[in-house]
Amino acid sequence: MNKEKLLLELDFKAVRSSGAGGQNVNKVSSKVVLTFDLENSLGISDEEKELLKQKLSSKLTQNNVLILNCDEDRSQVKNKSIVIKRFLSIIEKGLHKPKIRRATKTPRSVKERRLNTKKIMSALKQNRKKPNF
User: What is the reported pTM?
Assistant: First the structure.
């Protein structure tokens, strides 16, 4: 993955935010919409594209386009930086391959500890019984 190439491939569009905010919302286009075409990207290899298609399938459109919105701040510049950070973190998480778990045996000390506690509990319960005379 080449971050510089990815950042050049991003498309940004400024849109008016929705919701409360008075004149600022009505006048200023502060919401930023980021679109990224995964299929035609040159910054990601074919193997990485397939991995991202699988992991980000719920976030991609039918044309394999990732769309992210940000209207958290009143500033368009801040919203743009927030959405870029969010995009990079999504891509990095999508490309992360978890470690393969190797099965291991239960240690002997754990088995012995479990048996010892069973013996102690057994003896404790035996002592609760009424004595046989």
Answer: 0.70
Give the C-alpha separation, 133 to 122, whole Å: 21
Residues paired with 64 in a beta bridge: none
What is the rounded CA–CA span in Å between residue 101 and residue 88? Answer: 27
Q: At what angle do helices 76-95 and 46-55 cross, to 10 degrees?
A: 100
Cβ pair 91, 6 in contact under 8 A? yes
Residue-by-residue DSSP string for 81-130? HHHHHHHHHHHHHHH--PPPPPP-PPPHHHHHHHHHHHHHHHHHHHHHSP
* pLDDT one-digit tens code per residue, 84-114: 999 999 999 999 988 999 999 999 999 999 9
Are the CB atoms for 56 and 86 separated by under 8 Å? no
Question: What is the sign of the dihedral through the CA atoms of 102, 105, 109 and 113?
Answer: positive
Catalogue all structural domains in the chain, each as residue range(s) with its CATH number: 3-95 (3.30.160.20)
Dist CA 36 CA 52 (whole Å): 12
Q: How many CB atoms lie within 10 A of CB 37?
A: 14
Q: Is 88:3 a contact under the CB 8 Å cutoff?
A: yes
